[in-house]
Specification:
Layout (H helix, E strand, L loop, with lengths): L1 H31 L8 H14 L1 H4 L42 H10 L15 H12 L4 H4 L16 H14 L3 H4 L8 H5 L1 E2 L5 E2 L16 H10 L16 H5 L3 H27 L12 E6 L19 E4 L1 E2 L14 E8 L3 E9 L18 E7 L20 E7 L5 E6 L15 E6 L3 E9 L16 E9 L12 E2 L3 E5 L6 H28 L1
Helix pairs in contact: 2-5, 4-5, 7-12, 10-12
Length: 539
Amino acid sequence: MSEQRITRGRSVSALACCMGVGLWLFLSLLGASPVNAQPTEADLEAGEQIYLQRCAHCHGVEGDGVGASTDVVYPKPRDFTSGVYKFRTRHETEEGNWLAADSDIARSIREGLHGSSMPGWETVLSGQQIDQLVHYIKTFADVFEEDTPGLELSFANEIASSPESIARGKEIFETVFECHTCHGTDGRGNGEEALAGLEDDWGYRIWPANLTKPWTYRGGSGRRDIFRNISLGIAGTPMPPFADPDPMAEARETDDPEEKQEIEALARELQEDTWHTVNYVQSLWTYPQEPEVKATLTAKRVDGALPMSPDDAAWQEAPVNYYPLVGQVIQEPRLFASMTVGVELQALHNGEEVAFRLVWDDRTESAPGESEEMETYGDAVALQFSSKPLSGMEKPYFLMGDASYPTDLWYWRNDPGDAVLTRTQGAGTFQADGNAGGLVSQGQFDNGQYRVVIQRALQTEQTDTEVQFPIGAFIPFSVTGWDGSNGEFGGYKRTVMAWYNLYLEPEPSKAPLYLLLVGIGFGLIVEFSALFVTRKNHG
């Protein structure tokens, strides 16, 4: 009897434990509000209010991608009425639809789309609010009522990066998937198809991603993100899918073991080749993430003549600073959709002259009037300095100064390819010409990248009206640029950055060596003196 009670007691305890766990899971699921749960009317109403407050100004009240900001952003806001989403983890459906899973839409809302005007809302909206927003956004497209998302993408057979894998990925990139036709041989988004003109499904001109800058990958730069984009393509764009939605379908239909094995091997090979391509794409990165901006650019001191060629090996000894560039949006006419992401800058000096090397990616080598669609201009870049000596923390207005604090622009343009000195007292006074001003330069365009060197003497005779470069001092500078094929020109439509400091490295101090020699000499004197005294005392 006692054993039966014990057994029955244990059963009751186990049952109570299971019921408790089950109740906990049930309550947890209720609180979690999973995105795929059927929304209530309250959820849809809440989602609508969030949408109107946070999303409609870009995506439009009707969800058609036509909002107040549509004309001034790149890429254009998503048209939710189409039901087409670029970044998904689901294959095409049997009905031919590229539907995103709820979790895919939620991720885009939560994390935003890098390199675009779509911000991440994770710190603004709660998980429940994001879920409600997903449900409401889906109401714009009837296709979500008529169809369901396709099969989930498999990330199996991942290949770790290695020199062999990267070499295989390069081969697939160029000869099998032919990615270079859009992304270019070096991955800068300047392939022949891109230069000829690519459009999305809504008729907007678009550019392939610059694969060398992963922080601009709109759908994320993780390994699975890259694998997903290669496998499923980017819906609504010319980027095609390369994966079979159901690679094992034929294998299931055959009874021939050898044929089944062959089909499975081919499916595995395609997945492995995609992973090889992922490894190659990652090998193209100039940096794994956007570099931290340094407040000071150090001009390293060297002996002898400064390098004039942008590809001179001497530049390998100079520190590299990266500076992001943004469109000028303070004054009319504004540049909202800039194409240039940033510029790398180096500096060297020899005590008499200073040289700057500027490197930036540009998909097109622009020329004035080359496009029938829009007015185009030459590509250009300029280093900006204060025209007159500064004291304390004062600096000119970063948008080309003003009457009280004018600026010197060392302005280089790809046509004719020489640098000139032009002085400005505000953006409206800028003129794309000037005198040599003692500047010498050399620039080149190479497969989607500009590399330019500009040199000048540290000191000039116009000490009160031209920038001077005292060694060991901090000198404010900034960079501005023009992408002519993007309609950038003049003092307003251009990319800009804030002021930073240039520091010219002094000549290495000889004091330590001098003190060492003095110390050695003093030590010898003491030693000989002691020896002399010792001998005298013993004498």
